[in-house]
Design a protein that fits this description.
The chain has about 325 residues and is an alpha/beta fold. It is about 55% helix and about 10% strand. The longest helix has 22 residues. The protein is globular. About 45% of the residues are buried. Its main location: mitochondrion.
C-alpha cells in the first residue's frame, strides 16, 4: 500500500511538472521555433509555427509576439505587420486551454499569466499604429480569432473555418468576443457564441469576421506584393487587398449560409435570458430551430448564462473594458 501511494504521488508530481513545463516560458529551441518573427521587405512577419498542433497559441508564443509587435510599431522602417500560420490546415485553432485548465489545479499563477498576457496581446493588436494584416487561411478559432479579428485587415480564403466553440468546454467566447460578437450584423454574434456554429470560406467575409476574401492559391502572391510595397500607407495596403479581393471569383455568387435564417436569428436571440431563447426555439419548431436547440443543449448551461451576459454587457463597452471583464471571468471559470 505504501509503495502504491508513493507511485501515485510520483505520477501526480510528474504530470504536474509536464503541465508546468508546457506553459512556462522556455529557452528550448522548440519554444523559440513555435513562432517565427522576421523582417521582410517593408513588413514585420509573424508566422505561427506549430502545424502539428494546428498552430495553437501557448504562453511562450504570446511572450515572443507581444514585445516584437511593440518594437515593430515603433520602428520607422516597418510599415505593416503580417501574421500567418504554417501548414495549410490552420491559421490558429485556438489557445492551449486544456493545458491551462490542468495547470490551474497545480499552479494558479500560470493560468492567470496566460489569460492576462493573451488579452494584453489582443489589445496591442487593436491599438497597433501600423497596419496589421492577418491571413486567416484554414482553421481560425478562439485564440486564433483574438490574433486576427482586432487587426485592421483580415483576409479569408475558401479554406477558412471560423468558430467560437468555448461554450462547449465550460468557458465563454473570450479574446474580446464580448466586444466584436455583439457588433456583427443583428444578433449573428449571439448565435455564433451560443451554438459554436462554423462559418466557412466566403461566409467568414460576409459575416464581417474578415475584411477581404482571396483565393488560397493567390495568397503567397498577395503576401509578396504587400512585402514589395515601398513605404506604404494604410491606403496603399488596402488598395492591394481590394484588388485581390475583387479578382476572387470563388463562391462569389453563393448566398450567405445563414441568409434565409437571419430574421429568425435576430428574433430568437433578442430574448433577455437563456431560458427564453430555449423556449422560443422550442416553440418555433422548424428544422433549423431544432438543430440549433440540439447544439445549445450540448453546451455548458453556466457558460451559456455567462456568455449572454458577457455579450449584452460588452455591446456598450470599449475593447479594453471587455478584456478586463473577460480576464475576471476567465479566472472565475478556472477555479
Amino acid at each position: 500500500m505504501r509503495l502504491w501511494e508513493l507511485m501515485a504521488r510520483f505520477n501526480s508530481f510528474k504530470r504536474t511538472n509536464v503541465i508546468l513545463q508546457h506553459l512556462r516560458m522556455s529557452n528550448h529551441t522548440d519554444a523559440a521555433g513555435e513562432v517565427l518573427l522576421e523582417r521582410k521587405g517593408c513588413a514585420g512577419v509573424i508566422t505561427l509555427n506549430r502545424p502539428k498542433f494546428l498552430n495553437a497559441l501557448n504562453l511562450s508564443m504570446v511572450r515572443q509576439i507581444y514585445p516584437q509587435l511593440k518594437k515593430w510599431e515603433q520602428d520607422p522602417e516597418t510599415f505593416l505587420i503580417i501574421i500567418k500560420g504554417v501548414g495549410g490546415k490552420a491559421f490558429c485553432a485556438g489557445g492551449d486551454i486544456r493545458a491551462v485548465s490542468e495547470a490551474a489545479k497545480a499552479n494558479q499563477k500560470l493560468s492567470q499569466e496566460f489569460f492576462r498576457e493573451e488579452y494584453m496581446l489582443n489589445n496591442a493588436i487593436d491599438s497597433c499604429q501600423k497596419p496589421y494584416v492577418a491571413l486567416i487561411h484554414g482553421i481560425t478559432m478562439g485564440g486564433g480569432v483574438g490574433l486576427s479579428v482586432h487587426g485592421h485587415f483580415r483576409v479569408a480564403t475558401e479554406k477558412s473555418l471560423f468558430a467560437m466553440p468555448e461554450t462547449a468546454i465550460g468557458l465563454f467566447p473570450d479574446v474580446g468576443g464580448g466586444y466584436f460578437l455583439p457588433r456583427l450584423q443583428g444578433k449573428l454574434g449571439y448565435f455564433l457564441a451560443f451554438t459554436g456554429f462554423r462559418l466557412k470560406g466566403r461566409d467568414v467575409y460576409t459575416a464581417g469576421i474578415a475584411t477581404h476574401f482571396v483565393d488560397s492559391e493567390k495568397l503567397s502572391m498577395l503576401e509578396a506584393d504587400l512585402l514589395a510595397l515601398k513605404s506604404p500607407s494604410k491606403e496603399n495596403i488596402a488598395d492591394v487587398l481590394d484588388t485581390y479581393h475583387t479578382k476572387s471569383k470563388i463562391d462569389q455568387n453563393k448566398p450567405f449560409i445563414l441568409e434565409e435564417h437571419l430574421d429568425k436569428i435576430n428574433s430568437w436571440f433578442s430574448a433577455n435570458s437563456v431560458e427564453q431563447i430555449i423556449e422560443i426555439l422550442q416553440q418555433d419548431g422548424s428544422s433549423f430551430a431544432l438543430e440549433q436547440l440540439k447544439a445549445i443543449n450540448k453546451m455548458s448551461p453556466t457558460s451559456l448564462k455567462i456568455t449572454l451576459r458577457q455579450l449584452m454587457e460588452g455591446s456598450s463597452k470599449t475593447l479594453q473594458e471587455v478584456l478586463t471583464m473577460e480576464y475576471r471571468l476567465s479566472q472565475a471559470c478556472m477555479f
